[in-house]
Automatic annotation (TrEMBL):
Alphabetical list of Pfam families matching this protein: CYTH (PF01928)
Protein's name according to its UniProt entry: CYTH domain-containing protein
Cross-referenced Gene3D superfamilies: Hypothetical Protein Pfu-838710-001
Source species of the chain: Prevotella brunnea
Active site (catalytic residues): Y32
Length: 165
């Protein structure tokens, strides 16, 4: 898959039961390479991908993304070459009013962080939000996975309101 990725990111309210709305979940482990742009290898259950993301020119709403499926063996070898600070999370999928929300529950040094993303076809597209969606963090680099691997949530979680920690 290649093309323009347009997505909005949100924190998820801890007090809301969002897991019951999920129709699927998968375990994701990913590592990052030192590069000018975001370059990562991801293992999602029994599939693996190499992804390169360009810089955003509109405050984090959209950016070019290249993604190619690779073998699990290739991914395992590439993960050994990645920079320190792997991302470990479970992704839940929730359909809501015509949009797919991907909700990530993080583990390890990012334990306690729960974020939702929704991809859009157009930057001006209307997005109705389920009741468990909270504060928007689109464009806030603290919430990029590539940032979380270096500055994990455990170090700055107290900077967020209690319902998001």
């Amino acid at each position: 898959m290649s093309g323009l990725e347009i997505e909005r990111k949100f924190l998820v309210h801890k007090s809301k039961d969002w897991k019951k709305a999920a129709f699927s979940s998968s375990r994701i482990q990913q590592g990052y390479f030192s590069a000018k742009h975001t370059v990562r290898v991801r293992v999602r259950d029994e599939k693996a991908y190499l992804t390169i993301k360009g810089a955003s020119l509109d405050g984090g709403l959209s950016r070019y993304e290249f993604e190619k499926e690779i073998s699990l063996e290739e991914a395992r070898r590439l993960l050994e070459l990645c920079e320190p600070g792997k991302i470990d999370k479970r992704r839940y999928l929730v359909n809501y009013e015509g949009h797919l929300f991907e909700i990530d529950e993080f583990y390890g040094d990012n334990e306690g962080l729960v974020m939702a993303e929704a991809e859009l076809k157009d930057a001006n597209e209307t997005l109705n939000l389920p009741e468990f969606i909270g504060m928007e963090v689109t464009g806030d680099s603290r919430f990029y996975n590539s940032h979380l691997r270096v500055h994990p949530f455990k170090l700055w979680r107290d900077a967020l309101p209690k319902e998001y920690r």
